[in-house]
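Hey team,

Filing this mostly as a record. A colleague (T.K.) asked me to run one chain through the structure pipeline before their review meeting, and I want the input and output archived in the tracker in case anyone asks later how it was produced. No errors, nothing strange. Just documentation.

Input sequence:
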Amino acid sequence: MNKIVIRFLLLFSVISISVIINSCGGAKTDIIGEWQEENYQKGNIEKVLVLGIVSKEKPLLRRNFEDGMTQAFQDGGINATPSMDHMPYEEVVDSTSFEKYFKDLDIDAVVVSRLVAMDQTRDYKAGYLYTIPLSSYYGFYGYYYSGIAYANSTGYMSKNVVVVLETNIYETTNKKIIWSGISETVDPDKASDVINSFGDELVAKLKGEGYFK
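Output structure:
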């Protein structure tokens, strides 16, 4: 075997090992349970509004979450916009403010996420059967108010944890829920790890299930 071939094989081995090492690092997200509205006609969503339910004391976290999720949808070919681009952060989302700030955006669906749990052990397991636990979830505004109360009373990120998010998707005609899921992100070092990993997984999931045009 000549020296050129040997050098090529050595170089290929080094590159392959580097790719394997890099692919094994970082946070990993799984959607471990979901619920779907059986009567909803899929394939009609062209543009989504991204809304993160985050403590009012952490506007930068909400900014980063909404921007990261918007980018994930756009990378997947779906038109998306963050809510913070269109309304003041300190203003609550109700029927009046929604119509005021979002009516002219031609939004088909609102993607709403909130923190459910953050621990060093997994309280949620793959295969978990997800059902809607509260009647207030079915309407967008009821869910938003119950979620913001929880967000304002909890912390958000530390290393070596499992981060569990709950995400609901509401169609904008009647503000009724059409999809809900629980995601688990393992071993994030920082908030952006959760956002990037979760965003990619959610978009892939929804595209695979045929929600978008």
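Quick notes for T.K.: The CA atoms of residues 35 and 184 lie 16 Å apart. Helices lie at 3-24, 59-75, 95-102, 140-151, 191-208.
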